[in-house]
UniProtKB/TrEMBL annotation:
Listed EC numbers: 3.1.4.55
Pfam families (alphabetical): Lactamase_B_2
Protein name in the entry: Phosphoribosyl 1,2-cyclic phosphodiesterase
Organism: Stieleria neptunia
GO molecular function terms attached to this record: phosphoribosyl 1,2-cyclic phosphate phosphodiesterase activity
Length: 270
């Protein structure tokens, strides 16, 4: 067997689904539907995010409003970097929950995002960037930006390949490929050039909001069509709303495609 340098050998990683729900979560406020009243814990879906445990540390993808509860629930004590798909509120507005992380890291939290996301973070969290001294340690989140675009980049020593996608007709978002795993939420169109970046993944995560068509998200059938086009061994559906019961939907789905759920863990190779 030929020698393979350590730096080029695949390593194991672990993906944890912190949240798998749509922007309003499941159960939805004030809703008495069957899914919102379900006793199946897999129908309880907080807002979308994952962590990826890598050889160099743990990367968080997006900071949803439920972040504090999610990290405590999954006993994730430390996040070493954050990567952003886009700046919508359900993917951004838990950022302040990272205020404790710099104490444990010993430095600011690295944020990997494009120019649009950075400008929205600076506006929404202006107090974190104000030109004044904090009154006490931890008063504001300590953040450090690394600008990304559509080119591959490294986070914690692992290559991330951006997957440019459309989230409705006027909004651009990013999915990410990490080794044999890809995470593509909040989209209703993946261009052919981006589909090429997904070739060969073993686990694909794709958003599937509901049964009916939606102007900015894949519905269930559209997500299935993408899964078939990519040909991953396993496809997991995320960003799902209260129209989709976990067990009934999984029973209906084709072989190799299932719904993800909060707390699900998946081994990957990076």
């Amino acid at each position: 067997m030929p020698f393979v340098p350590e730096s080029s050998r695949p390593h194991e990683g672990l993906v944890t689904f912190l949240g798998t729900g749509t922007s309003v979560g499941v159960p939805a406020i004030g809703c008495d539907c069957e899914v919102c009243q379900s006793k199946d814990p897999r129908n309880n879906r907080t807002r979308c995010a994952i962590t990826v445990r890598l050889p160099g540390g743990t990367v968080l993808i997006d900071t949803p409003p439920d972040l504090r509860v999610q990290l405590i629930r999954e006993r994730i004590r430390l996040v070493h970097a954050v990567v952003y798909t886009h700046e919508h509120a359900d993917h951004l507005f838990g950022l302040d929950d990272l205020r404790l992380i710099p104490f444990r890291l010993g430095h600011a939290v690295p944020l990997f995002c494009n120019e649009t996301v950075e400008s929205n973070i600076r506006r929404a969290y202006a107090y974190a960037f104000a030109d004044r001294e904090d009154t006490h340690p931890g008063a504001t989140p300590k953040l450090e930006f690394t600008r990304i675009d559509e080119s591959p980049f490294e986070a914690l020593g692992t290559t991330f390949i951006p997957i440019p996608m459309k989230h409705g007709p006027h909004f651009n978002v990013l999915g990410f490929r990490i080794g044999d795993f890809a995470y593509c939420t909040d989209t209703n169109f993946i261009p052919p050039t981006s589909l090429e970046r997904l070739r060969g993944v073993k686990t694909l995560v794709i958003g599937a909001l509901r049964m009916e068509p939606h102007p900015t998200h894949f519905n269930l059938q559209e997500a299935i069509d993408v899964a078939r086009a990519v040909g991953a061994q396993r496809t997991l559906l995320t960003h799902t709303g209260h129209q989709l019961d976990y067990q009934k939907t999984c029973d209906w789905l084709p072989a190799g495609i299932d719904m993800a759920y909060d707390g699900l863990q998946v081994d990957i190779r990076v």
